[in-house]
């Protein structure tokens, strides 16, 4: 009995499905996040006459009000050299923190249509929102350096090379808080109001509108407590790296092992944010 040969085209292997590798998945996620971030950055100023200038005006207006009230009228920071530049740097850092967490808070709830229609890692929406705010922050910080250095308003040195480290620490903190808030906001809309109040409390507790040296002069114990606040630590260390080299690092102010508290807090907040976000992700579609 003659055997029938199997009919198989010579290039049959070309029709076999190819499964994406982990590298391909990471590349696809990166491209999606970058595209969303750029799109949000462009849409943010669509239809606006001043466009990106608003990103400069908002921190500058807040800086002007705070400087007028606390420096000109109340004489806060009068004994601290270059307090005006200290205040401006702090306002730019804080504006990024507030803008990034506030926009990321509603990133999942606002992307309900996209979540129901396509599958992709949901955290990309949160990362895209924070990256959009980070783009504005980097531009604003760069403008401060470009404008202030020629006028001798900054005191740069080897310590200034640590600025990228503080920016990374700040972004990790923002990302952890954003993951936590965005996940909870899907189910509990009161989170938006609660975070608005908490952020105001954090603003006044982060030595934004007053020099850290004033806290140290008032109470060494209080200075240590403030130095353990991650936002206060980041703001003050950025000031030290750019403006006030005579003021010690917050690690020196905290002393002992307390200088690790802000870093541990950043890692802890990020871990909690990721765990909560990952646990609630499967319920996003039905809640939205």
Give a description of the structure.
The protein has one domain (51-287). It contains 13 helices and no strands. It starts with 21 loop residues before the first helix and ends with a helix. Mean pLDDT is 81; it is low at 1-7 and 11-17. 68% of the residues lie in helices and 0% in strands. The radius of gyration is 24 Å and the shape is globular.
Could you give the topology of this structure?
Elements: H1 22-43, H2 53-73, H3 83-105, H4 112-117, H5 123-148, H6 163-187, H7 190-204, H8 212-218, H9 220-227, H10 230-242, H11 250-254, H12 261-280, H13 284-287
Which sheet architecture does the biggest sheet show? none
Beta strands, count = 0
Q: Can you give the helix content as a percent range?
A: 55-70%
Low-pLDDT windows of residues: 1-7, 11-17
Radius of gyration: 24 Å
Report the end-to-end length measured between terminal Cα atoms. Answer: 65 Å
Write down the domain tally: 1
Report the total helices. 13
Write down the secondary-structure element order: HHHHHHHHHHHHH
Oligomeric form: single chain
Averaged pLDDT = 81
Percentage of β-strand residues: under 5%
The coarse silhouette is: globular
Query: Which structural class do the helices and strands define?
Result: mainly alpha
């Amino acid at each position: 009995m003659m055997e029938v040969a199997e009919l198989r085209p010579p290039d049959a292997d070309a029709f076999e499905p190819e499964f994406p590798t982990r590298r391909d998945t990471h590349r696809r996620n990166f491209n999606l996040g970058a595209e969303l971030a750029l799109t949000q950055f462009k849409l943010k100023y669509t239809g606006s006459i001043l466009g990106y200038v608003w990103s400069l005006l908002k921190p500058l207006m807040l800086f002007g009000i705070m400087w007028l009230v606390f420096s000109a009228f109340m004489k806060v920071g009068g004994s601290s050299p270059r307090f005006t530049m200290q205040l401006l740097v702090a306002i730019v850092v804080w504006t990024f923190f507030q803008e990034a967490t506030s926009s990321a808070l509603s990133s999942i709830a606002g992307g309900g249509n996209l979540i129901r229609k396509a599958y992709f890692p949901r955290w990309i929406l949160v990362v895209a929102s924070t990256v959009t705010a980070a783009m504005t922050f980097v531009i604003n910080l760069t403008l401060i350096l470009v404008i202030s250095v020629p006028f001798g308003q900054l005191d740069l040195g080897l310590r200034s090379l640590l600025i990228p480290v503080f920016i990374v620490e700040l972004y990790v903190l923002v990302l952890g808080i954003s993951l936590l808030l965005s996940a909870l906001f899907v189910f509990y809309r009161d989170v938006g109001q609660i975070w608005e109040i908490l952020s105001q409390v954090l603003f006044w507790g982060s030595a934004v509108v007053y020099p850290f040296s004033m806290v140290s002069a008032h109470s060494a114990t209080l200075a240590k407590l403030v130095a353990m606040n991650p936002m206060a630590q980041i703001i003050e260390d950025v000031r030290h790296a750019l403006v006030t080299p005579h003021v010690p690092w917050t690690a020196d102010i905290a002393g002992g092992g307390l200088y690790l508290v802000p870093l541990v807090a950043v890692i802890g907040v990020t871990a909690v944010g990721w765990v909560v976000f990952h646990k609630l992700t499967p319920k996003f579609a039905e809640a939205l």
